[in-house]
Amino acid sequence: MPQSSPPVWRNWAGNQSATPRRVVTPRSADEVAAAVTAAAGDDLTVRMAGTGHSFTGAALTEDVLLRPEGLTGLRAVDAERGLVTAEAGMTLKTFNEHLAREGLALANMGDIQEQTLAGAIQTATHGTGREAAGLVSQVAGLEMVLADGSTVTCSRADRPELFDAARAGLGALGVVTAVTWHTVPAFVLQAREEPMRWEEVLTHLDELADGNEHFEFYWWPHTDGCLTKRNNRVPGPAEPLPAFRHWLDDEFLSNSVFGLTNRIGSLLPVTIKPINGVSARALGARTYSDRSDRVFTSPRRVRFKEQEYAIPREELAGALREVRSVIERSDLRIGFPIEVRLLPAEDAWLSMAYGRQSAFIAIHVFHSSAHEEYFQAIEEVLTSLGGRPHWGKLHTRDASYLEGVYPRFGDFLALRDRIDPSRRFANAYTTRIFGK
User: Fold this and answer.
1) Which residues pair with 196 in a beta bridge?
2) What is the spatial distance between Cα 256 and Cα 262, in angstroms, rounded to a whole number?
């Protein structure tokens, strides 16, 4: 197996780094198993990194780091049944291209597609949807290497307990080497983006959520400005944005200009409120349609740090009002919009939407800005409502809190005790959230 001298590994946001003793790039499940067995012989822990889009220390290790670049193959396509198997290190972006060539698609996605397939599901990455749930609900099967070096598969029919635990397992149960997906026939998605005022959005939340297949919105702190996005299937043909409008809106304004204003705000916080006011007034409406993954996802070139919590759906309006109140009572200056999404109940044990219809509130800061005071203040609001933190985004929760908000948390820990009693796949982050 290709091995390299220990470099410093950093995540996308630049807020997490580690220098592992050993870096291995396996090219098959057998090579993953060999790396795990070798690590056990040296009494070292093992973590598999993705593309670093988690803001937590989920991928960090001081021992053996497995890189995903050698596990990127497309293994099998059963178009008739909609089942597609790909190796764990393939990115969602590449996977979407494979699916499109087969006339298939994922039913729902988040707004970033740079993650690896395994990294996305292990942290329970999700989008927004009325009936269509997150990525873990679209998984049909997993291939994994366990702590004893064995390679196993699991699904709803085969080792269902492992399947329900490992779909969002944070790599704590084993190394995922391949994922089989439930896909749907390719479809065209129409996006309707429209500015609305704060009170109008909160007053009509149920109508907006129930009346659209996928609804989300962004609120600019220190203003009343919101941008709503309603995505619904249409027969086609696709009517994408003209090339210049796409570049202007999604590259120049949403990335180049937004990045510049955040750099200015980071250096001169006094400018953030007026900048947000201008941004909120400049929001414009647009409607377009395209291949589904091109509508679900957007380029995100401005680096940031993020915290996100899932709360019971019925608590959303009240939670948002309290979040706004906290910001307005403080000296905080927040340059990033707050993102709100919705999801139906899921059944993966550690999905943030496990067993309940959920609303997600995500907050961000520029990557070089201090986040602690802001994130702590909002975390206090959301944890008071039984909020569940996104596994790949910054939070301060530990096992003593998490066991109270996840009904199957104890079952997860018991399974982990059975299949990884030596904690071969542990790191500082998993130790905090699962305990010792």
Assistant:
1) 226
2) 10
Do 428 and 172 contact (CB within 8 A), yes or no? no
- Max alpha carbon distance in the chain (Å)? 61
The structure tokens 């948002």 sit at: 320
Written as six digits, the tokens of 83 are: 């089942």
pTM of the model: 0.95
The upper half-sphere exposure of residue 224, i.e. CA atoms within 13 Å in the direction of its Cβ, equals 7
Q: How far apart are CA 436 and CA 430, in angstroms?
A: 9
Per-residue pLDDT of the chain (436 residues; tens, 9 = 90+): 655 556 899 999 999 999 999 999 999 999 999 999 999 999 999 999 999 999 999 999 999 999 999 999 999 999 999 999 999 999 999 999 999 999 999 999 999 999 999 999 999 999 999 999 999 999 999 999 999 999 999 999 999 999 999 999 999 999 999 999 999 999 999 999 999 999 999 999 999 999 999 999 999 999 999 999 999 999 989 999 998 888 878 887 788 888 888 899 988 999 999 988 888 888 889 999 999 999 999 988 899 999 999 999 999 999 999 999 999 999 999 999 999 999 999 999 999 999 999 999 999 999 999 999 999 999 999 999 999 999 999 999 999 999 999 999 999 999 999 999 999 999 999 999 999 8
Amino acid at 225: G
CA 50, CA 34: separation in Å to the nearest integer? Answer: 19
Q: Are 140 and 83 in contact (CB under 8 A)?
A: yes
User: For tokens 């056990």, what's the residue?
Assistant: 40
Q: Residue 276: which H helix or E strand, with range? A: helix 272-282
Which DSSP state fits 241? P
Half-sphere exposure of 178 (CA within 13 A, CB side): 21
Say if residues 349 and 164 touch (Cβ distance below 8 Å). Answer: yes
